[in-house]
Amino acid sequence: MLRLGVFTALLCWLVTHGPGFMSLGVDAQETGRVAVWRARIGVDPNPKAGADYMRDSKAEAIRLMRSTTRVNHYHYAAAWEDIERVQGVYTTDDLAFEMRESAPLPVAFVLRIVTAGSRNMPGAYAGLPWDSPQMIERISGLIEAIAPVVGQRPWSYAVGNEIDTYFSSRPAEIAAYARMLQQIKPRIRALHPRALFTSSFQAEVASQLRTQYAPIVATLDSVSFMYYPLSADYVVRSPSVVPGELQALADAAAPRPVYFQEIGYPTSPLLGSSLEAQAQFVRLVYETVRSLGPARALGATYLFQADFPDWVVERIAGAYNAGNHQRFREYIRTLGLRDDRDRPKPGWREFVKQTEAMAPAR
Predict the structure, then answer these.
(1) Angle 9-12-14 (CA atoms, 0-180°, nearest 5)?
(2) Phi, psi for 261 (deg, rounded to 5)
(3) Where are any strands of DSSP class E within the chain?
(4) In the CATH hierarchy, which fold is given to the domain comprising 5-358?
(5) Comparing 246 with 53, which gets the higher pLDDT?
(6) pTM of the predicted protein model
(7) What is the DSSP string of 334-345?
(8) For the chain, domain boundaries
(9) In degrees rounded to 5, what are phi and psi of residue 211?
């Protein structure tokens, strides 16, 4: 199956031209003498289908998200190669824009040094061993350069995105990557003491967390997953599978809690889906997160807020060499909770309802 890692990276490019509740990265509000747990709920606010996908349209999408939902965190993924385009020179304008527009929401921050099956870094570093002093120095420099921009907003800090898409064909590099994580974790913790340290995996490799990926998982505070219940040909599985599959992912990560960094469910009938099925998916995901509780599930972010315009679908299909893959195109085109005319789907209304249930009390 073609994965979303490159897709989300391309979208970002398009838009820019100790114990206790808080130690788990969740909100705890005192109601009388009872602590009420609030899981993280968010949506990736991509621009509406009729927008030009420049910064103003992204800002408009964020305003819509904030004015009509009660999301309680913001998900953002930053690519190393976009920040350090010139060796040793860091450009943080795009990151600063995202932080400014989303303030003061807590942030699930992803530093994409690996994504979609490849290293996401300046070419000068691409051949360095993960645990070499030079690589540790370069990654540490990047982390320190962006720290003032993200400040104390991160509740979760992921290093690497869908890392299994890279390491599945390079298993010999896993141990070195784990050693790199061990060395940079103290620096991230010092700069962002409220953030849980994590990396993200596709849900499909959950059974390998205790075997192939055990050296990496041993360093993490939590495990992040991408969850899209699709078959290999992009036909959706019934929403009824959601509770069991999410519980299985939580079991695979235990004793670490899970965060569902990306969830999504297309609405195209060509994929065996419907508007009502997407709404049911949204409801079951967030009901299951709440039922699992803070020790097992931290929250989930839905991708995406809006369906994509045809020109974005075409560009994504081209990036994946999938121009003739109609099911892939329908998958990409109909993931949004709002349709191509910016009308709310039933899934959007259900998402708004779930934010009311999961946001801190007024």
Answers:
(1) 110
(2) -65, -35
(3) 27-31, 34-38, 40-43, 74-79, 107-112, 114-115, 118-119, 154-159, 196-198, 200-202, 223-227, 258-263, 297-302
(4) TIM Barrel (3.20.20)
(5) 246
(6) 0.91
(7) T-SSB-TTSPBP
(8) 5-358
(9) -120, -90
| Residues paired with residue 167 on neighbouring β-strands, in sequence order | none
| Residue 12: per-residue pLDDT | 55
Query: Would you call 220 helix, strand, or coil by DSSP?
Result: coil
Query: Which candidate, 117, 116, 113, places its Cα nearest to that of 170?
Result: 117
Residue type, 216: I
CA distance 255 to 228: 23
Non-local (6+) Cβ contacts of 357 within 8 A are 286, 290
Looking at this protein, which amino acid is placed at residue 305? Answer: Q
CB count, 10 Å around CB of 13? 14
pLDDT at residue 30, rounded to an integer: 40
How confident is the model over 250-262, as pLDDT tens digits?
A: 999 999 999 999 9
Size (the chain), residues:
362
Distance between CA 347 and CA 263 in Å, rounded?
13
More confident residue, 237 or 325: 237
307 and 338 Cβ atoms separated by less than 8 Å: yes
Q: Taking residues 165-179, what's their average pLDDT?
A: 97
Burial 211-237 (b: 16+ CB within 10 A, else e): ebbeebbebbbbbbbbbbbbeeebebb
DSSP-assigned letter for residue 1: -
